[in-house]
């Protein structure tokens, strides 16, 4: 899809140093700034890795023909123009990115809470597990007062894994309920031992695991409060007034991977409308 070109607009590219001041935050050299007029539209998905720019995006501002991104460290920032931008990042980085361009959406995004969690993965010889439940895992309700909130029986869930480690049971324990951050402040060894001790009577474990690994996921899970759907609607309405901007990810329509993919498809459907209709300003 080729874009038109506004007559008299400055040329694209070049190696001059550009300083764009806005709230004192914008200062960078041009990266692969504006694509040539016959280039296909540039759509940047923030959070999915930008070709050739493995760096965080620190700012976004609107242009008549799309958006401009500030990419990279403060010492070596690059400006990147795009016809459309999809922040596919968690709500708080998305809020910071949209603060200048769409302040009302930024405020709504900042209001979405996140819970931190940790995963304890453990391995036992099959004979040490006397009661292996059917299925791929189970949830443990908060009313039980335990540390572990969910268990994935990894070797039951993924056949390929069972094939890789025959005679071994691998389990993944999820820890970290909203408001129970203190549980996560233990050292790795202590956290792992506590999780394994909690699982021992459930699986009828006859010994300690042969290996454990703890992984932390700080602010990894968005928490949908009452009114979340209305909040998401307000975010999308605010963005609808900004052609070429759409959001997607776990903050919106569900935290599971299938829901994230669905929100990405929805974002992908909205941005081309703008991309096809807008002239390239150089
Ligand atoms: C421990 C754990 C286990 C899970 N298990 C399952 C499961 O079994 N099944 C399931 O369906 N779901 C599971 N989920 C949920 C699911 O994995 C997540 O909700 C989903 O991956 C989120 O995808 P996302 O693209 O929205 O965000 P992310 O995967 O968090 O991707 C966002 C990306 O944006 C990047 N980023 C952030 N800020 C910037 C910036 N300013 N500039 C550039 N990049 C930036 C981040 O580095 C990150 O790479 C699990 C989640 C966790 C935490």
> CA-to-CA gap between the ends?
16 Å
The string of secondary-structure elements, in order, is EEEEEEHHEEEHHEHEHH
Question: How many distinct beta strands?
Answer: 11
**What ions, cofactors and ligands are bound?**
flavin-adenine dinucleotide
Q: Bin the strand percentage.
A: 25-35%
CATH architecture field of the largest domain: 3-Layer(bba) Sandwich
Compute the CA-based radius of gyration.
24 Å
CATH class of the largest domain: Alpha Beta
Poorly predicted runs are 1-26, 277-282
**CATH topology-level name of the largest domain:** FAD/NAD(P)-binding domain
> What is the number of helices?
7
- Sheet/helix structural class: alpha+beta
What labels describe this entry?
282 residues; alpha+beta; FAD/NAD(P)-binding domain; five-stranded antiparallel beta sheet; four-stranded mixed beta sheet; 7 helices; 11 strands; disordered N terminus; disordered C terminus; binds flavin-adenine dinucleotide
Any overview of this molecule?
With 282 residues, this protein is an alpha+beta fold. It has two domains: 29-111 and 225-277, FAD/NAD(P)-binding domain (3-Layer(bba) Sandwich), CATH 3.50.50; 115-221, Polyamine Oxidase, Chain A, domain 2. It contains seven helices and eleven strands. The strands form three sheets. It has a five-stranded antiparallel beta sheet. α1 runs antiparallel to α2. The longest helix has 21 residues, at 257-277. It is elongated, with a radius of gyration of 24 Å. Mean pLDDT is 83; it is low at 1-26 and 277-282. The structure holds flavin-adenine dinucleotide (FAD). The site of flavin-adenine dinucleotide (FAD) has 19 residues, from β7, β11 and α7.
């Amino acid at each position: 899809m080729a874009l038109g070109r506004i007559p008299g607009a400055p040329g694209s590219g070049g190696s001059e140093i550009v300083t764009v001041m806005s709230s004192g935050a914008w200062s960078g050299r041009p990266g692969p700034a504006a694509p040539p007029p016959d280039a296909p539209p540039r759509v940047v998905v923030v959070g999915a890795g930008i070709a050739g720019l493995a760096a965080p995006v620190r700012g976004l501002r609107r242009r008549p023909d799309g958006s401009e991104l500030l990419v990279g460290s403060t010492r070596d920032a690059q400006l990147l123009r795009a016809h459309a931008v999809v922040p596919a990042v968690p709500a708080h980085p998305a809020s910071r990115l949209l603060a200048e361009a769409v302040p009302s959406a930024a405020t709504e995004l900042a209001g979405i809470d996140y819970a931190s969690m940790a995963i304890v993965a453990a391995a036992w010889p099959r004979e040490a597990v006397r009661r292996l439940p059917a299925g791929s895992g189970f949830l443990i309700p908060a009313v039980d007062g335990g540390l572990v909130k969910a268990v994935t029986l990894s070797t039951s869930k993924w056949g390929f894994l069972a094939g890789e480690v025959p005679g071994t049971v691998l389990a993944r324990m999820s820890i970290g309920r909203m408001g129970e951050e203190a549980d996560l402040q233990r050292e790795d060894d202590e956290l792992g031992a506590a999780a394994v001790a909690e699982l021992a009577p459930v699986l009828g474990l006859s010994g300690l695991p042969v290996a454990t690994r703890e992984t932390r996921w700080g602010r990894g899970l968005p928490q949908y409060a009452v009114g979340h759907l209305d909040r998401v609607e307000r975010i999308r309405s605010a963005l609808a007034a900004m052609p070429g901007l759409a959001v997607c990810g776990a903050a919106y329509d569900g935290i599971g991977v299938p829901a994230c993919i669905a929100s990405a498809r929805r974002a992908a459907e909205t941005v081309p409308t703008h991309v096809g209709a807008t002239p390239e300003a150089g």
